[in-house]
Structure to design on (428 residues):
């Protein structure tokens, strides 16, 4: 008998038939002798519809009330799923995030989990029931206010519960068959990865791969929770995300079964800010990024030009989520006189491509091959950033899909089997 935590995304429970299909899969897992805990997202586009409804009422809805509103979506799906499972003759009990013991900080809209006390979930398991937990939500430690966890919050809920319950595996179900070497929507020949380690998955999630969110993978790595990424629309085995040891006889730090490159990720949701005419003196860059951090923006890539000898001025460019761009620009503009830069430039028509693989740290020539592939495809590179297992480049957003396909082919990642299938259309 195993303890399994399963998470189902909104596309998996988008309608009554979807809920019934998921219920059947859960019941089969329970009848196979497993203890099962399920985390479920809101049905289909429910969350977006609730956001639109709130914005129709007021352009600035209070964050506390917004969280109470948005948690309604998961409560609907958890109760319907519990009903569907019970209809199959398997006992099921539904729980809100608060009832499940998900304790968060008090940052509404993007709260972070600080503790999980799943006593009621454990009691349901001990009674032989399937526990259904509303994803994406928790409760503050001191005031008991309802919070939401932000994008991908249900994934994070599932991994956090798996860690707290010491589950054998956390199964993340979406509408694709696993983690692929590229987004199958733009690279139909993308190949499914059977196994990937936490570090590579972290880089892919941070670089735009949407099948798992960064916070979920970080949590899994911290508590060593194996993640099994699968589709709720098929019976294919999916992708295992976990730590694993190098194969016996492999070179130090390498796995002979592990390819050099795990995949190509892309992100078209970033923007670039260039701070023009920055005095090239100690402390100025620190001041700029303190201002940006104070606006709540998350910086990704940074490039600083060599200062002009005649003027002593330089330019600093950095990328950040486009959703943070307005706040960061406003904060920098307010501090222009204090920092002493000449002007600001904003560009939201960029795209980021990232090549990821633990094998690249021991294989020379990866960078040269990447840049040659982009050059042959006529793709111009604007920024470059690297880590031990990742190379990222910024290009024009309208060239991003072509760039991904060119790099994917250049590194022999194309599958010779059937095209990848996206069952629900969203990948989550």
């Amino acid at each position: 008998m195993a303890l399994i935590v399963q998470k189902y995304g909104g596309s998996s429970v988008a309608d009554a038939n979807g809920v019934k299909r998921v219920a059947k899969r859960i019941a089969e897992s329970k009848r196979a002798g497993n203890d099962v805990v399920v985390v479920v997202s809101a049905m289909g586009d429910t969350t977006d519809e609730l956001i639109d409804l709130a914005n129709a009422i007021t352009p600035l809805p209070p964050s506390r009330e917004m969280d109470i509103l948005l948690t309604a979506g998961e409560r609907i799906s958890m109760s319907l799923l519990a009903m569907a499972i019970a209809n199959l003759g398997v006992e099921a009990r539904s729980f809100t995030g608060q009832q499940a013991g998900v304790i968060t900080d008090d940052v509404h809209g993007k709260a972070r989990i600080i503790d999980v006390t799943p006593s009621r979930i454990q009691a349901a398991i001990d009674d032989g029931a399937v526990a259904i937990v509303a994803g994406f939500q928790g409760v503050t430690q001191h005031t008991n206010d309802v919070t939401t966890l932000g994008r991908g919050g249900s994934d994070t809920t599932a991994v956090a519960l798996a860690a707290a319950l010491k589950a054998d595996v956390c199964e993340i179900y979406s509408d694709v068959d696993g983690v692929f070497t590229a987004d199958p929507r733009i690279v139909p020949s993308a190949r499914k990865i059977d196994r990937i380690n936490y570090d590579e998955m972290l880089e892919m999630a941070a670089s735009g791969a949407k099948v798992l969110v960064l916070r979920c993978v970080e949590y899994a790595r911290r508590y060593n929770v194996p993640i099994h990424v699968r589709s709720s629309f098929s019976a294919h085995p999916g992708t295992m995300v976990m730590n694993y040891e190098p194969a016996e006889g492999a070179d130090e730090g390498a796995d002979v079964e592990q390819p050099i490159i795990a995949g190509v990720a892309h992100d078209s949701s970033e923007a670039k800010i260039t701070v023009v005419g920055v005095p090239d003196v100690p402390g100025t860059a620190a001041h700029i990024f303190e201002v940006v951090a104070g606006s709540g923006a998350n910086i990704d890539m940074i490039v600083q030009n060599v200062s002009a000898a005649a003027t002593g001025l330089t330019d600093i460019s950095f990328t950040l989520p486009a959703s943070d761009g307005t706040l960061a620009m406003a904060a920098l503009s307010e501090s222009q006189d204090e920092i002493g830069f000449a002007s600001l430039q904003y560009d939201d028509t960029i795209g980021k491509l990232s090549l990821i693989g633990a094998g690249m740290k021991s294989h020379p020539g990866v960078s040269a091959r990447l840049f040659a592939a982009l050059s042959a495809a006529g793709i111009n590179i604007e920024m470059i950033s690297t880590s031990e297992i990742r190379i990222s480049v910024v290009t024009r957003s309208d060239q991003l899909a072509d760039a991904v396909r060119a790099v994917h082919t250049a590194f022999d990642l194309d599958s010779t089997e059937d095209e990848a299938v996206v069952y629900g259309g969203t990948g989550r």
About this structure: The mean pLDDT is 90. The two ends are 28 Å apart (CA to CA). The CA atoms of residues 83 and 328 lie 46 Å apart. The chain is about 35% helix and 25% strand.
